[in-house]
């Protein structure tokens, strides 16, 4: 957790960000952090939440298929319905 | 010549012509055959061509497979194995021999395939291909999913629908045959091809999928090339081949096994709406927790607030006011008290006289008590003196003289300590315990040895006094 905190939020995977957000929520709810630190971790938590949400909101089904071209495989959009 | 052979209208064919004719007929009529049988003896010649027999209970079919096809065989042809061979029939004229030229061959029969499957499974397991330590961790939320499957049919549609329902992401399909002789090669190419992709198109997770079917239908997923490609895949791989009850070797080597293609989609992506809810809840809890935390701190701060300076001073000032108001009164009271005490302290001569009288009486009493005490003290001193005198007496030289010793002095009263100085004097005085006697030395007689010895302790004794 300590080294995860060092990592910039945008470098975290969704899973890492969500896990850290959960830890922060628990810490803050337990009221076990100093006031000054609690504001700092709140800010980190808010950033993590935003990061998670951006990953969730950008979701869009995009279907492509591989086509074998002269320069090796490339992708083109496809519809399998 | 006529005599040797009966005349005939039939035109005699050469053997070669007949063989060629037969060959044409057979090759035309049997240009595509699919035949099932058990492999008899199998020989792979140094040229790479394979010669084998296909047989059943009653017949044998010589079969040849050229090197190119042999290398593409998806299994190792072994005697006793039941196979289905596809090819054409031909005739080898040099031997009067008809034979099958097989283009492809695959194992046949559930029993044979099961046995082969078990054998391969053991082999791969012994190699460690199925070991848990080789299993890769699947990404929680992949950005791109690569699917190796048939582009037609329900499988790809099921996968895409389920991914779309749960968490729509980018899906790249690598079209591949999933049945038949070329399937294993295409599936292998798909797995390896996805792994070869770099950059933004590279999938985070792979799904290799196929619908249900017989063990023969699913056989490509048991092929060594497919199993090894799945093992070597650097991208985590989910296998979803057949139904839940079907097991193929790719299921053992994959990082996760899904019971169905739909199940593979469920393993590959989480449910977006749930995650949004979770994240939203976390956000709310975060806000509430901070508000509570700061609220607590504010309460504490309020409780710990410094009092206003006026509030600190007012009670003191009040006390001062009270004090200054009561000061003159107190001073007055003090004087009055002092005056009262002074007035009570009036001196009376009568009391003084009685004091004096009492003192005199105490003096008298003391004097009376002192007299006998003084007498007793003097008597005690007398007794002490007498005992000290006795002690002194026992220690004095007079008592020594009484015990028989004498002291010799010259006329001047100086002690004579030796016989020689006694002889040198004109006269000397000898003191005994009861008195002195004057004596003169008899000059003619020198002192005997005993005399100084006797005199010596005397002298020593004398020196003590």
TrEMBL record, chain A:
| Alphabetized GO MF terms | exodeoxyribonuclease VII activity
Q: Name one GO cellular component term.
A: cytosol
Kindly give the Pfam families that the UniProt entry links to this protein.
Exonuc_VII_S
* KW Nuclease (keyword) present: yes
Quick one: signal sequence residues? Answer: none
E.C. no: 3.1.11.6
One GO BP: DNA catabolic process
InterPro entries the record matches: Exonuc_VII_S, Exonuc_VII_ssu_sf
Q: Which PANTHER family match?
A: EXODEOXYRIBONUCLEASE 7 SMALL SUBUNIT (PTHR34137)
**Which named protein is this?**
Exodeoxyribonuclease VII small subunit
Give the source lineage, highest ranks first: unclassified sequences, metagenomes, ecological metagenomes
